[in-house]
């Protein structure tokens, strides 16, 4: 049986954040399962996060973004790890998506049509998000805006059909025991390649 190819994409700009511990826990579990794992730590990439001309004019991709596209193509399973800030993703992660998930790579609009072709089909994804509020509150009061944007308007828009979400919160006031329990759960997810 072929090894599962997993790409962990960490969108937190602070390498000392709990999000980095989450990435490591998933990587540990995935490694124990025999999966092949690669990583993108967005904070370490050199690129302009601003899609300065929108889609009107192409901005040449920096080497780090070209490499990121190759890793995304390579992967069977994409694992996104990031905090939810202001109901969205961190600016650096949004810039990474804007610059990397471009027409011709992730999708292509059809000529004279409102429809598009999806280029990232056959992949699965797991979104692991941290919050400073309870997960139920984010879901029922705010209607999970970042979850919808990432799952439906980014992953599924580009062809990644099976997308699971793990929401961890509140983090800000959490105790070490709470975080350790979550790291064990994330390691188990990594081991199951989910």
Notes on the protein architecture:
The chain is an alpha/beta fold and 194 residues long. The protein has one domain (5-191): Flavodoxin domain (Rossmann fold, 3-Layer(aba) Sandwich), CATH 3.40.50.360. It is built from 6 helices and 7 strands; from the N terminus they run βαβαβαβββααβα. The chain has helices spanning 18-33, 63-74, 91-100, 135-140, 145-155, 176-191; strands at residues 5-10, 36-41, 77-83, 107-109, 116-118, 124-130, 162-168. The strands form 2 sheets. It has a 5-stranded parallel β-sheet, sandwiched between helices. Strand 1 (5-10), helix 1 (18-33) and strand 2 (36-41) form a beta-alpha-beta unit. Helix 1 (18-33) runs parallel beside helix 6. The chain is globular. The two termini are 17 Å apart. The model has no long low-confidence stretch (mean pLDDT 96).
């Amino acid at each position: 049986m072929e090894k599962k190819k997993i790409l962990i994409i960490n969108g937190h700009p602070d390498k000392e954040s709990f999000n980095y511990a989450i990435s490591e826990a998933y990587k540990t579990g995935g490694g124990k399962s025999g999966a092949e794992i690669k990583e993108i730590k967005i904070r370490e990439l050199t690129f302009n996060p601003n899609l300065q001309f929108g889609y009107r004019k192409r901005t040449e991709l920096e080497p780090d973004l070209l490499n990121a596209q190759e890793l995304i193509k390579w992967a069977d399973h994409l694992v996104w790890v990031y905090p939810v800030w202001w109901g969205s993703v961190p600016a650096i992660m949004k810039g990474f998506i804007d610059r990397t998930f471009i027409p011709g790579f992730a999708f292509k609009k059809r000529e004279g049509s409102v429809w598009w072709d999806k280029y990232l089909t056959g992949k699965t994804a797991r979104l692991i998000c941290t919050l400073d509020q309870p997960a139920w509150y984010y879901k029922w009061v705010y209607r999970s805006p970042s979850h919808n944007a990432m799952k439906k308007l980014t992953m599924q828009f580009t062809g990644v059909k099976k997308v699971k979400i793990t929401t961890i919160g509140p983090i800000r006031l959490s105790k070490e025991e709470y975080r350790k329990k979550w790291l064990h759960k994330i390691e188990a997810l990594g081991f199951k390649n989910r």
